[in-house]
Design brief:
Layout: E1 3-5, E2 15-17, H1 22-34, E3 39-41, H2 47-57, E4 62-64, H3 69-80, E5 86-90, H4 101-109, E6 113-116, E7 125-128, E8 136-140, H5 145-155, E9 162-167, H6 173-186, E10 190-193, E11 196-199, E12 209-211, H7 216-228, E13 234-238, H8 251-256, E14 260-265, E15 268-273, E16 284-285, H9 293-303, E17 307-310, H10 322-332, E18 337-339, E19 344-346, E20 356-358, H11 364-370, E21 379-381, H12 394-400
Parallel strand pairs: 2-13, 3-12, 4-5, 8-9, 16-17, 20-21
Antiparallel strand pairs: 1-21, 5-7, 6-7, 9-11, 10-11, 13-15, 14-15, 17-19, 18-19
Helix pairs in contact: 1-2, 1-3, 1-5, 1-6, 2-3, 3-5, 5-6, 7-9, 9-11
Bound molecules: shikimate-3-phosphate and phosphoenolpyruvate.
The site of shikimate-3-phosphate has 12 residues, from helix 5.
C-alpha cells in the first residue's frame, strides 16, 4: 500500500488514544508466561506484541517472529531455559541479518544449548531448553540492551536467580531500567549498580496487575507534527505518566527546544506549538533513546534547521540501516546529510521537493517519521502498512488531525 499525503497548512486539534508501549508489553508478556497470574492492562496492539503473544501460545517447533526484535531476543532466553522444549526461532530476511551472538554466547555460559541453523551469529537458531548450570553471566553491553533485558526477564524463574555482568559502555540504558522497574512492579527484586545486574530468584505465584503506559516512541510523531504546525496548534494524546519507564519520554525536553511545550492533565498530555525560536543542542546524544532519532532528524529537516545527532551506533542493526535510509530519503527531498557509524549531520535547507516518494525499507519508523512533512509539501509513503509493527492505527490517527491521505 502506497499512500499520498497532500500538503496541508495546519492541523485540527484533536485527542488521540495511543496504544500501549510495545517494549513494556513484550516484557510483561514474557513475565506473564512465567507467572500466569500476572494481569496486563492496555496491551499494545502492535504486530510485534501480537507475534509475541502468538509465539508464547504456540506448541510448534518452528516459530517465526517476522521483524520483531524484542520478541526474537526475549524468546531466545525464554525458550533456552524451558526444560525439555525444542524450538527453532526464525524471523524475516532482515531479522536473519540482525546479530544475536552476544545473547547466544551468554546463554551458552549458563549451559543452554543453542545452535545456528544458517549463518553463525544470526537467526534462525535452534534451542534445546535446559535448566541453567550457573547463575552468573558476562556479556558485551554496547550492541543491544535487548540481550540484557532478555536475560533479566527469565532470571527470577531460575533456581538461583542471576548475576549479569556488563562489559563496556552500556547502550540504550533506559530499556534496562524499564525491565528492572517492571520486574519490581510484578514483585521480583533486583538491582543494577556499577555494570552489575542482580535478579533474585522468585518462585511465588505472582499475581500483580500492571497497566502498560502508552507508547512514547509513537508519541514522537505527534511532537514532530506539532513542531511543524502553527503557533498555538496542539494535539492531545493519552495515556502517559510524568514518571515514565520509557526513555523516549526525553521527547518532552528535546522538543521544548523545537518550540513544543508539553502539559499534563492527569495522564493526558497536550503538545502545543509555543515558539518559533528553535535550536537543538549541538551533538544531541541519542544513545539512550535510539528510536526517536529518525523523528528528530526529519523534524529538523522540515523546520529547515541544521542538526548533529550522536550516539546512533545501534541504528545500523535495526529494522534497516536507519542511518543510510535517513540520508537517502532526506537527500531525495533536497536535504544534505552526512553520516558516520554513529552520527548524523543535517545541513539547514530552505525548501522541500514536492511529490517525492519515500521508501520505507520495511521500517515502520521510516514511514511514520516522514509523514509529518505533509505540513511542508505533498509526498508519497511507500509500503505504508509497515507502521503496524508498532502502531497499526497511525494513519487513521493522522486523518483525525486533518491529514489528507489518499
Ligand atoms: O528493549 C526494548 O524494548 C528496546 C530496546 C532498544 O533496542 P537496543 O537496545 O537494541 O538499542 C530499542 O531500539 C527497541 O525498539 C526496543
Ligand atoms: C528497533 C525497534 O524494534 P525491535 O528492535 O524490537 O525490532 C523499533 O521499534 O524501533
Amino acid at each position: 500500500m502506497n499512500l499520498k499525503l497532500e500538503n496541508i497548512s495546519s492541523i485540527e486539534n484533536n485527542t488521540l488514544q495511543i496504544t500501549g508501549s510495545k517494549s513494556e508489553t513484550n516484557r510483561l508478556l514474557i513475565l506473564q508466561a512465567l507467572y500466569p497470574n500476572i494481569e496486563i492492562e492496555n496491551v499494545s496492539n502492535s504486530d510485534d506484541s501480537k507475534l509475541m503473544q502468538r509465539a508464547l501460545r504456540s506448541n510448534e517447533v518452528v516459530i517465526d517472529i517476522h521483524h520483531a526484535g524484542t520478541a526474537m531476543r526475549f524468546l531466545t532466553a525464554y525458550f533456552a531455559v524451558k526444560k525439555g522444549r525444542e524450538t527453532i526461532l526464525t524471523g524475516s530476511k532482515r531479522m536473519q541479518e540482525r546479530p544475536i551472538k552476544i545473547l547466544v554466547n551468554a546463554l551458552r555460559q549458563l549451559g543452554c544449548a543453542i545452535s545456528y541453523e544458517k549463518k553463525e551469529g544470526y537467526p534462525p537458531i535452534k534451542i534445546l531448553g535446559r535448566q541453567p548450570i550457573s547463575n552468573q553471566v558476562t556479556l558485551k553491553a554496547n550492541v543491544s540492551s535487548q540481550y540484557i533485558s532478555a536475560l533479566m526477564l527469565v532470571a527470577a524463574s531460575l533456581p538461583d536467580g542471576l548475576v549479569i555482568i556488563l562489559n563496556g559502555k552500556v547502550t540504550s540504558v533506559p530499556y534496562i531500567n524499564m525491565t528492572l522497574s517492571l520486574l519490581k512492579d510484578v514483585g521480583i527484586a533486583g538491582t543494577f549498580e556499577n555494570n552489575v545486574i542482580t535478579i533474585l530468584s522468585n518462585n511465588d505465584d505472582l499475581s500483580q496487575k500492571v497497566r502498560v503506559e502508552s507508547d512514547w516512541s509513537s508519541a514522537s510523531y505527534f511532537y514532530s507534527i506539532v513542531a511543524l504546525a502553527n503557533i498555538n496548534d496542539s494535539v492531545t494524546i493519552g495515556s502517559y505518566k510524568k514518571e515514565s519507564y520509557q526513555g523516549d519520554s526525553a521527547l518532552i525536553e528535546i522538543y521544548r527546544d523545537l518550540g513544543v511545550e508539553t502539559s499534563f492533565d492527569d495522564n493526558i498530555i497536550t503538545l502545543t506549538k509555543v515558539s518559533n525560536e528553535i535550536r537543538l543542542p549541538e551533538g544531541l546524544d541519542l544513545s539512550n533513546s535510539p528510536d526517536i532519532a529518525q523523528t528528530i532528524a526529519v523534524t529538523c529537516f522540515g523546520l529547515g534547521l541544521r542538526c548533529y545527532l550522536t550516539g546512533l551506533h545501534t541504528l545500523k542493526i535495526k529494522e534497516t540501516d536507519r542511518l543510510e535510509a535517513l540520508k537517502t530519503e532526506i537527500e531525495k527531498l533536497g536535504g544534505s546529510v552526512t553520516i558516520t557509524q554513529d552520527t548524523l549531520r543535517l545541513e539547514s535547507s530552505k525548501s522541500i521537493k514536492a511529490d517525492v516518494s519515500i521508501a520505507t525499507y520495511n521500517d515502520h519508523r521510516m514511514a511514520m517519521a516522514f509523514a509529518p512533512l505533509a505540513l511542508r509539501n505533498s509526498l508519497y509513503i511507500e509500503n505504508a502498512d509497515v507502521v503496524s509493527k508498532s502502531y497499526p492505527d497511525f494513519w487513521s490517527d493522522l486523518k483525525k488531525l486533518g491529514f489528507k491521505i489518499l
